[in-house]
Amino acid sequence: MWNPFRKKKKEQQESKFNFDFETFDNLFQYLVNELNHVSVLVEGLRDEAEMKWYQFPYSYENSEDDLEVLKRKGFQNFYQLLNVIHEKAAISPVDAELDVESDRQYDLMIVNFYVSPNDDEKSYFKKIKCSFYLFFVCENDSDEINAFRIFYSRGLNYTIEDFLNAKFLEDINNPEPEDESFIAGFEKVIAALSQETGVAINKKILDKHLNAQISKEVSLQDFRDLIEMANYWKIEDAEKKAQHLYSYSQKDKKELIAELEAQNEDDYEYYDDGYFPLRFDIIHEDNYWYSDWKFDPEDMEGIIEHFLDEEWTFDYPEDTYSHDLFPYIQKALSEKGLELMNMDTLGDSYGFFIVKKENVDPLLTISDKLELGIERLL
């Protein structure tokens, strides 16, 4: 008999994500048998993402910070802390005393990646760490490992306290709305790790993120794309500049700095600050403005007018100055499809430039890859 509700029921049961035991187990086996730490550049995410194999508690035992957490939280050993984590996920408790005697170790898989801060965090942080912790367990009376339990945290805590406070995800494929965006990022990272390692994972995840992985190998095309994105108008000598910067990027950094110092006629001092030494050459001089950290609204109007070569104003509350002006500047620029960005000067100053909004995320990704120090101003 035809059931008019059958299709509706199927739609209700459809999962938002497609994580499964085989996906995580295959990646974990790679960590155990090939490399116990894998990093990858992921399209649209900040810095490198990573997955690593930890043995609990061995991987934490030699850290003074983790031992301090243990003491501060009132645990006599790591296994007592582990039981608190187990309780969240309805995992059977371990025998802490017996495990201490036998020095038993438990496998733990950790995946970390970075995202941009939210409105409450942006005044303090440039990026936020997302961590996913996975235990592998036996369920349904199985004698073999056949399932996983996963926990999620978000912040900048790098100690075991982050794991202790992590949220248990009862059904990662159908998460609560506030967790969806970070689990979507996690899904992209899993796809990129599969592409990096060649490990087989759920096909639906790969089909959704065909180009999640970004090659770590620096290419001429990277600099072509970079120059196009970092300048919101077409640069006449873009190809020549791209080839010039690419050729320098292939040199050893110390040798490059010595060569630049020898060629220098302006008494500019080059040094290894962790960034590509010629990063400021990427932006056209008409699209760059060096500014002190203190500035008035009128200063910013003049700077933006310099960039746009036209009159420009924006609305802002009275007695608003310096970095507090950024939200109002960005709102006005967004009406033109533009955004103000910063080249990290490693000091109490800004290196302002303007880009098309559509290029912001790709520019941040390539900046991380090429070590440029490009930042959003939120």
> Using DSSP, what is the number of strands?
11
Helix and strand composition category: alpha+beta
**Uncertain parts:** 1-11
Rg value: 25 Å
Major beta-sheet overview: 7 strands, antiparallel
Structural descriptors:
378 residues; alpha+beta; 7-stranded antiparallel sheet; disordered N terminus
Descriptive notes:
- Helix content is 39%, strand content 19%.
- It is α+β, with helices and mostly antiparallel strands.
- A seven-stranded antiparallel β-sheet has the order 6-5-4-3-2-1-7.
- Helix 5 crosses helix 6 (96-102), helix 10 (220-230) packs across helix 11 and helix 10 (220-230) packs across helix 15.
- The protein is elongated.
- The model is unreliable at 1-11 (pLDDT under 50).
Helix/strand layout:
Elements: H1 6-13, H2 21-33, E1 37-42, E2 46-56, H3 58-61, H4 64-72, H5 78-88, H6 96-102, E3 106-115, E4 128-137, E5 147-155, H7 160-164, E6 167-168, H8 180-197, H9 203-208, E7 213-214, H10 220-230, H11 238-249, H12 253-263, E8 289-292, H13 297-308, H14 326-334, E9 338-343, E10 349-356, H15 360-370, E11 374-376
Antiparallel strand pairs: 1-2, 1-7, 2-3, 3-4, 4-5, 5-6, 8-10, 9-10, 9-11
